[in-house]
Write a structure and sequence with these properties.
Elements: E1 3-9, H1 13-24, E2 31-38, E3 41-48, H2 51-57, E4 66-72, E5 87-88, E6 94-102, H3 105-114, H4 125-139, H5 142-152, E7 155-163, E8 170-175, E9 180-183, E10 187-191, E11 203-206, E12 211-215, E13 220-224, E14 229-230, E15 235-236, H6 252-258, H7 260-271, E16 272-273, E17 276-277, H8 281-289, E18 292-297, H9 299-316, E19 320-324, H10 325-328, E20 339-345, H11 351-362, E21 367-371, H12 377-381, E22 384-387, H13 400-415, H14 423-439, H15 441-452, E23 457-462, H16 465-481, E24 484-489, E25 506-511, H17 517-528, E26 533-539, E27 549-551, H18 559-578
Parallel strand pairs: 18-19, 18-20, 20-21, 21-22, 23-24, 23-25, 25-26, 26-27
Antiparallel strand pairs: 1-4, 1-10, 2-3, 2-4, 5-6, 6-7, 7-8, 8-12, 9-10, 9-11, 11-15, 12-13, 13-14, 16-17
Helix pairs in contact: 3-4, 4-5, 7-13, 7-14, 9-13, 9-16, 14-18, 15-18, 16-18
The chain binds 5-amino-5-deoxy-1-O-phosphono-D-mannitol.
């Protein structure tokens, strides 16, 4: 959940690392730090808060050609200067940055304390720095020290390491946490993702678990955990540096909400050819022949999976189960005879889903990953990948990835249907509806001002597909506006939760499905009778004139794609009006790479 960038080469490492860290801020943003090696000495600078604080701190630091940087999302120890990375060994021989969690750090720390090492932070990372110093002192060989470390260390770690007496080498180790090498001319880099290096290079080398690198300005040497050399070709990434610019938008979230019609159009062009689904035939057969699909995901991706289940069951008449990665990884449900496992993950790096994928693979089952990030860990470890083609999603609150996930699942469901719908036509209608919502966003801002913004808590109600959207809209609102929000199946309210309704509690009713429109309206009447402030978002065909926001009609199965946009904008304006940091909400990180 932290971000790492390292650089060795002819240019000024400071500028390149700071630029890279800014693109990685989505991975954690409670503190940051940078270290350089110069003339046999390590210089470390650390600061609490955003990267710009660090940038101010180091503005007068002289040019360096080798450095590592880190942006942190606290796991061990509170966000503070002392706990920020890089962490340096007691005798200042080693400094390093770390992403991950070391499971046996207490044992290693106790051994080191017995050898006279002292510690100045609460982190597991400082333990690795001292461990490496001890091994380097013993062996006088950094490569051997790393091999020993990989043998002794248990847990997840991506590391960028500098050695005070090595002006011309940057070390990097990876296990169960993302890390990539960037290949340049006259320089090389390491980074948590391609975006951190894309301004410098579009050529990358994958690093697998339990491998390490010795990086010089002219060469990247890869080794396995025994120290044997590995050859691996570089690949060219299609990530575009301009995709990560904010343009004229005030926030990435608003930019990404606006990009959703384009995302749908891109998916239509990538996956539909003459109205037929255009995917790998073997994968298609796996899906078609499976007697049950198991969707595994977290957060927003899981909410997209719920909509996908509904669509696949309605259109393709195939049973689907949806599971949370964090639960599935530790309890395998009873599995059907011919299952196919589908992992949905924007980042392709979510640790909870990865644990589940590993379990599925150990059992010998086939797995498909649906992800936005080509070459990501879950993509590489599954048998098949379908890309979301949504472009980099920077805001922590996921928006366009959800729309891409639901669209792709709809295309898959439709391909298996006996009576398919005209997806080109229907998804174009969805785009009309989304464009219309976005063009009336001031109306949503006013609704939020009048009815939601001051509240302590809030409810979204819906049934069937509207319920699944209620879950996603509630997650959006709580994660960026910090209003405690529940997405609720409207029929369930009276079985307990209605006790929470007080005078003025905002209850947002979502109504797009004809067969349950009246049921949700009754639930809204029940809360209104208890003095709740109700807000009704309805699709034209089931709307009343006095509903608060009316959405253009779409095919009923595709209604979540437009409806969710209203929820995204409600969350956006609530956070904006409360003055919160929309793209980087507190306590969160975009990519949850630790369990
Ligand atoms: O990268 P993933 O799709 O696997 O991420 C899963 C969740 O962490 C993610 O959707 C999270 O819930 C978002 N912050 C929600 O906006």
């Amino acid at each position: 959940m932290c971000g790492i960038v390292g650089y060795i080469g002819e240019k000024n490492a400071k500028d390149i690392i700071i630029a890279g860290l800014k693109t990685l801020e989505y991975r954690g943003y409670d503190s940051s730090g940078i270290a350089f090696v110069d003339n046999g000495k390590i210089d470390v600078y650390r600061e609490v808060g955003r990267i710009t604080n660090l940038e101010d701190l180091i503005k007068d630091v002289p040019i360096a050609h080798l450095g590592i940087g880190h942006t942190r999302w606290a796991t061990h120890g509170k966000p503070s200067k002392e706990n920020s990375h890089p962490h340096t060994s007691m005798n200042k021989m080693i400094t390093l940055v770390h992403n991950g969690v070391i499971e046996n750090y207490v044992e290693i720390k106790n051994d080191l304390v017995a050898k006279g090492y002292t510690f100045s932070s609460e982190t597991d990372t400082e333990v690795i720095a001292n461990y490496l110093e001890e091994e380097y002192k013993k062996t006088n060989d950094m490569k051997q020290a790393i091999v020993n470390m990989m043998n002794d260390l248990h847990g997840a770690y991506a590391l960028g390491i500098l050695c005070a007496d090595q002006q011309d080498a940057l070390y990097c180790v990876k296990n169960k946490t993302p890390m990539l090498a960037g290949v340049g001319t006259g320089f090389n880099m390491i980074g948590s993702d391609a975006m951190a290096m894309i301004k410098e290079t579009n050529k990358f080398i994958e690093i697998n678990d339990l491998e390490f690198l010795i990086v010089t300005k002219d060469k990247i040497n890869i080794f396995d955990k025994e120290g044997n050399s590995i050859n691996r070709d570089a690949f060219i990434s299609n990530v575009n540096a301009t995709d990560i610019n904010l343009g004229t938008f005030p926030h990435y979230m608003l930019k990404e909400i606006n990009e959703q019609p384009t995302v749908i159009r891109t998916l239509l062009s990538k996956y539909l050819c003459d109205g037929k689904l255009n995917i790998d035939q073997e994968l298609y057969q796996q899906i078609e022949q499976a007697d049950r699909l198991y969707i595994i995901a977290s957060g927003t991706s899981m909410h997209a999976g719920l909509v996908g289940k509904y669509l696949i069951e309605e259109l393709a008449k195939k049973p689907v189960e949806v599971h949370l990665g964090s639960e599935f990884g530790y309890h395998l449900p009873l599995i059907s005879e011919k299952p196919l496992f589908i992992f949905i993950t924007q980042s392709g790096e979510t640790a909870d889903s990865r644990v589940a994928l590993q379990l599925v693979k150990q059992q010998g089952y086939k797995a498909l990953t649906i992800t936005n990030v080509e070459g990501s860990t879950l993509s590489r470890e599954a048998d098949y990948t379908l890309l979301l083609h949504a472009g980099p999603e920077i805001a922590v609150a996921s928006t366009k990835a959800y729309v891409a996930q639901v669209t792709l699942l709809a295309l898959l469901a439709n391909a298996l249907a006996d009576n398919p719908i005209d997806m080109n036509l229907e998804l174009n209608k969805v785009n009309v509806a989304i464009d219309d919502i976005i063009s009336r966003k001031e109306q949503i801002e006013k609704l939020v001002k009048d009815k939601v913004i001051t509240s302590r808590n809030c409810f979204y109600l819906g049934r069937n597909l509207d319920y699944y959207v209620a879950l996603e809209a509630a997650l959006k609102l709580k994660e960026i506006s910090y209003i405690q929000t529940e997405g609720f199946a409207s029929g369930e309210l009276k079985h307990g939760t209605i006790a929470l309704i007080e005078k003025g509690t905002p209850v947002i009713g979502l109504i797009t499905q004809e067969k349950i429109a009246l049921n949700t309206r009754s639930a809204l009447q029940e809360v209104k009778a208890r003095e709740a402030t109700t807000i009704i978002i309805a699709q034209k065909k089931v709307a009343n004139n006095d509903d608060d926001f009316i959405i253009e009609n779409t095919h009923h199965l595709l209604s979540p794609l437009a409806l969710v946009v209203v929820g995204q904008l409600i969350a956006y304006y609530a956070a904006l009006l409360k003055g919160y940091d929309i793209d980087k909400p507190r306590n969160l990180a975009k990519s949850v790479t630790v369990e």
